[in-house]
Amino acid sequence: MSLNQTPSSGRVHIGLFGRRNAGKSSLINAITNQNIALVSDVLGTTTDPVYKAMELLPLGPVMIIDTPGLDDEGELGLLRIKKANQVINKTDIALVVIDSQRGKTPLEEDLIIKLDSKKIPYITVFNKSDLADFKTGENEIAVSSVTGKNIDALKEMIAKKAVKPLAEFPILSDLIQKGDFVILVTPIDESAPKGRIILPQQQTIREILDSNAISVVCQVNELEGVLGNLKTSSRMVITDSQAFGSVSKIVPENIPLTSFSILMARHKGELFHQLEGAKALDSIKDNDKILISEGCTHHRQCGDIGTVKLPAFIRNYTKANPEFDFTSGTEFPEDLSPYKLVIHCGGCMQSEREMKYRIQTAKDQNIPITNYGMIIAKTTGILDRSMKVFI
């Protein structure tokens, strides 16, 4: 996979935070040596987080995020600050940008405390150092976006700070061996993107290939024939969660069966905590509130999994009429107390850090959280079977 094809979730996320006119946008332009961000003397030029995927040497594929000023004002300003704070939860390394002429203030001190509490590495960057002399301490650097002073040194600091640890769990390479056959059921229906397969399917196929195993990709109506034609038994079958009901009737009980969504839950977060969250479905009653959260943003179609199919599965299973709220993209409530259950997608477009933040937010408030695939497995009566491969 080329650097340009590296998915957002696989890139190091570098977020720039600070006051309005601290020079965040000009610093991005200096770091990248491109005019990526709009620069102006007008306060509040950056009104929404701006994302730029690129290669940053010596680090590699990164996502640089320019954010609105944390000192913005007014009703719109508060919304912009909220957007900036949401970016923190997906940031692998933060640059706290300070105008050297003004120096560090309680706003930056509070930001650093927040970053420390979330265990997010950061560098304090005193920008505009061509206009003011400034002595720096540990984890600090004085730069100038205008003259280029210490920009290369800042890149080196970022590279050292932003080394991402390997995920605790791969997608499935620890579950298979060389030569294993793995069947992937990928329905091509109205929800499938035209001309391509979705990211979890791509990543799973790549990991199977890297493990020197063999992937067999088919649709539901082809599955029975594929199973019959294989001379050796399949190591496992992985399906799109929406096809769990049909696929489970075809796949013999002796062949492990799970879903892409459940694999991603294991890869990105706490699988068994989310398993316990799925069991909370048994206690859902009329008028209970359930949050269904999708990590990416896309055009909602007729029969959408999050807003249409999941609520229908839940109502049919519980025989109750709960209320549903829906969020997507970076929108994830800090206050989850109104909800009896949170159901999240597999998080293929979220970094591991962001997914764990969302799970921890629910844990801290004692709100059960689970996963699309687990809920579908639960409502179709095969949750225990879909988890056997991990036990």
- In round numbers, the mean pLDDT is 87
Largest sheet: 6 strands, mixed
Which strand order spans the largest sheet, edge to edge or round the barrel?
A: 2-3-1-4-5-6
What proportion of the residues form beta strands (DSSP E)? 15-25%
Count of helical stretches? 13
Q: Which residues form runs of ≥5 with pLDDT under 50?
A: none
- Our Rg estimate from Cα atoms comes to 23 Å
* Broad structural category: alpha/beta
Note the overall shape: globular
Number of strands: 14
Description:
The structure is a single chain. By secondary structure, the chain is an alpha/beta fold. 34% of the residues lie in helices and 19% in strands. The protein contains 13 helices and 14 strands. The strands form three sheets. It has a six-stranded mixed beta sheet, with helices on both faces. The protein has a four-stranded parallel beta sheet with strand order 8-7-9-10, with helices on both faces. Strand 2 and strand 3 form a beta hairpin. The longest helix has 15 residues.
